[in-house]
Design brief:
Layout lengths: L10 E2 L2 H12 L14 H7 L11 H8 L4 E2 L15 E4 L9 H14 L5 E8 L4 E3 L2 E3 L6 H8 L8 E5 L11 E8 L3
Parallel strand pairs: 1-2, 3-4
Antiparallel strand pairs: 4-8, 5-6, 7-8
Helix pairs in contact: 4-5
Length: about 190
């Protein structure tokens, strides 16, 4: 998205995560880092071989320019807003906030509602996630598969939507079986 967007809105509920996102944009004087962390560089190296991304002289500078201050908000608040996003991404959100199938589906619906008709999107989900623990806090998850994703996207997407399970042995944590990627366009 970075080469083509004049502004990027980051919606995040957690104050700690908003601080992290702001630090990724603005850098961190304590660690003498200008812009986002170096662990993102391999990602950019792959993207820079593609049209549009290869034209970016300095991805960190472009990131600083187009990423707005992270907005405090909930995925579910998007259902009440007027569709306004020209493009959208959602990663590991709707299935990672609940054990309820209905609430998972509502989260996906709210995200899709925020997109303008015809807007391209990409979403990623953790397949068969069992949730996770951070310290003493247990975080819920909805066990989903590609059929659940297709059902949740439902009538919001054009028939050309691409939903696939990514085949990788590199899992970022225990408690899930793989990644599901869905990409396409919101129906006109």
């Amino acid at each position: 998205m970075l080469p083509w967007c004049d502004s990027i809105t980051l919606l995040e509920r957690s104050a700690q995560n908003r601080r992290y996102l702001l630090g990724q944009r603005d850098g961190d004087d304590a660690h003498q880092r200008d812009g986002y962390d170096a662990h993102w560089d391999p990602f950019w190296k792959v993207l820079c071989g593609r049209k549009g991304y290869a034209d970016l002289d300095d991805p960190r500078e472009r990131f600083k320019k187009v990423v707005e201050d992270p907005i405090e908000g909930s995925l579910f608040e998007l259902c009440g807003a007027k569709p306004g996003w020209d493009v959208g991404t959602m990663f590991f959100v709707a299935e990672s906030i609940t054990t309820s199938l209905e609430e998972f589906q509502r989260g996906v619906h709210c995200f899709m509602h925020a997109l303008k008709p015809g807007a391209p999107f990409a979403t990623a989900f953790m397949e068969h996630s069992q949730g996770y623990r951070v310290g003493d806090i247990e975080f819920p998850a909805r066990d989903i598969d590609t059929n659940d994703v297709r059902t949740a996207l439902g009538d919001f997407v054009e028939s050309t939507v691409d939903i696939q399970r990514l085949h990788t042995s590199d899992l970022v944590r225990d408690g899930y079986t793989g990644m599901i990627l869905a990409r396409g366009r919101r129906k006109e």
